Amino acid sequence: MPPTDADARRLSEIPCEGASEGDSHHETCSSWCTATHAAAHCEWCKCKSCDFCTDDSWKQGVEKPTAVHASASAVKTHSSLCTRSFPSSSGHWDCAAHSTAPHAATTCAGETKVNLEQRRCSTWCKEMFGAKHCVECKCVECDFCAVTNPTWHDDERVELTQAARGELPLLRVLSHRWLVLIGDSSIRMLFHFLLGALTLGWQKWPSDLSEGHGPDTPPPEWLAALQGPTCLDRHESQCMEDAVFDNEARKLRLTCLWTDYGDVSTLGALETLTHDATGAVPDALIVGFGAWWVWHRGSLSLQYEDAVRKLLNHLDQLFPTASTAKVFASTTSCGRKDSERPDGDGTARVAARFNSLAKKHVLQTKDWSWFDRDVITGLVCDVDADCAGNQYTSRFHPAGDALNVLVSLLLGHLVSCSPAGHL
At the N or C end, where does the chain have fewer CB atoms within 10 A? Predict the structure, then answer.
């Protein structure tokens, strides 16, 4: 995003080595930097000169304990920045492109006064060689060189999708942590996105993966982290994937249990894993199921509410400690809402009814937070890129910029709401 006048006034002359592609080379305080997400944003040169980044208090969220699993004896005081329901319903997308070239938004190779006049899209410029050609002045104006970076605005906070890409600063808060994800294919897709970012350097959900899960043939880097078989094409309850990183470069654990209707009886594999992990508890639980209910049991909303209640109660018994942050994610209707149909189509209205019932129970349950994903996904900037799947299933599978913002908001919430010493 181009710097504003306010950013320019706050520009620091202190050199800074950027944490990610697109970062500044000097310490600044950009308008999108927020204290709420200080643990992530203060890793960026574009935020380092902000007042809330100039002391070390923000590092509390990224300090590393001494084991892959944090102990259950951490302090149980939550941050005052934590909210029980997020994000705010007042948020909206700005779908304008904020950069024009992937590697140099305003400059190009060999740029001189003459070359400035030669900025164009030559006939020899090819999309397949975009990484090389799009930094050339003679190609920089090609349509395929444009990089959209939509911005999510939420109560005067700005969430840039750029802040949730690749080896992103927010992923660093996962170091030495254990996250457990339980739910349908949208939750499994979130797990696969984190796994892809960690092992393959994914910047976004790959456009050729349109079925709501990772690659059919997992690469060696992916398999090296997994402790067992994948659940890429298996619709089986208790199909669980467990990824462990335990080396000098990275120490963390991600566990994902697939469940269609959230039945307590499907948690057997997770219960066994928890029993075997003596003394270890997850730092966070992310739960979300509803797609199968909406699609196949749309008239059974009260039974869905009962399933939510039973699952949350069972998980509270399985993980009773307050050191585990607990989040329930709403069902999405990706790209199904617009100005003419703000409530979406018929299925979107069913999902909204189910979400309303689930939210009511989640907010009545101690220590649980409500993640209203459909605030982000109901109206997206590019339906084809931001919703993965066919005409029926894509509503349940946020991808693209929408998924990046969801990851940013989720991990930022976990930083804010986890007890001191965790996440």
Answer: N
In one-letter notation, the amino acid at residue 170 is L
| Contact in structure between 358 and 411 (CB atoms under 8 Å) | no
This prediction's pTM: 0.72
Structure tokens at 265: 């009886």
Has residue 202 got a pLDDT over 50?
Answer: yes
Q: Where are the beta strands (DSSP E) in 14-107?
A: 85-86, 92-94
Whose structure tokens read 């009260």? 302
Looking at 93-175, list the stretches that DSSP marks H as alpha helix, in order from N- to C-terminal side: 113-116, 130-133
Closest CA to 220 of 204, 199, 192, 195: 199
pLDDT for the residue numbered 396: 95
Give SS3 for 387: strand
85-94+154-417 CATH, one of 3.40.50.150, 3.40.50.1480, 3.30.420.40, 3.40.50.1110: 3.40.50.1110
Task: Quick: pLDDT tens for 120-129.
Answer: 888 888 766 6
- The SS3 of residue 82 is coil
> What is the C-alpha separation between 252 and 69, in angstroms, rounded?
8
pLDDT at 63: 35
CA 112, 114, 117, 123: dihedral to nearest 10 degrees? Answer: -100
| Residue of 41 and 375 predicted with greater confidence | 375
